[in-house]
């Protein structure tokens, strides 16, 4: 029995499928299956029930899974103590929300490549509700999204927060701007979709101030939301740095008399059972690179 065989068994059992597990280990599916077969031969029993469509743990495989995790965790601790400064190699796939992708993600990738030139980086930008299942299924090594996660399998570490500001086009209000939270009820709200983390703080704001939202116009792209606000299609909120710059250019006006939204926390998230040094080392680099007050790369 070898650690490589235990790795193959553990990740095959906890990832979405054998293909995802093989990708995490940077080997082919056939190599993964071979290692599992060798482990089964050493044990003298099957760990998976296989058919044409899927592989499901046998009762023995299910019982041994926790023990395999403990052995691998001990091995990772040993290697971490032995080679804390070792440069990382292989492939890292991570996910970020749109705000991070438009601001400091390029800085993070540059920092990773300078620190670990042999590590291949594959970023994926999407909504948090899309990224979290992929993280839990093993398709991503970590994610930086609005959090903390509510999934028990995912650990979260605070990495920063964003303050949002109410804004609208300068010409939208010829008379007085909205003064009270209740004034928002009669407005069109331009926001990201309901699955976005920013809508979480909007819903809390509406409940806190006992406001029933009227019409909503949603778009999955934050830059497009800013453009729609600029065109006077409704009122909404943007990250403080974005809002300040667009107000300075005369494209938007801050609705400063409305009660403020609470800040939105962002977290570095990873699977609790993933003790690889890479995950923790990249968390430290992400903390160095994080800057939610940055303007969008193209602004």
From TrEMBL:
Q: Extract the Pfam families matched here.
A: HTH_1, LysR_substrate
Give the record's keywords alphabetically: DNA-binding, Transcription, Transcription regulation
Q: Which family does it belong to?
A: Belongs to the LysR transcriptional regulatory family.
Name this protein carries in UniProt = Transcriptional regulator, LysR-family
Q: Where's the HTH lysR-type domain?
A: 1-58
What's a Gene Ontology MF term here? transcription cis-regulatory region binding
Source organism of this protein record: Bordetella petrii (strain ATCC BAA-461 / DSM 12804 / CCUG 43448 / CIP 107267 / Se-1111R)
Q: Does the keyword Transcription regulation apply?
A: yes
Is the keyword Transcription assigned to this protein?
A: yes
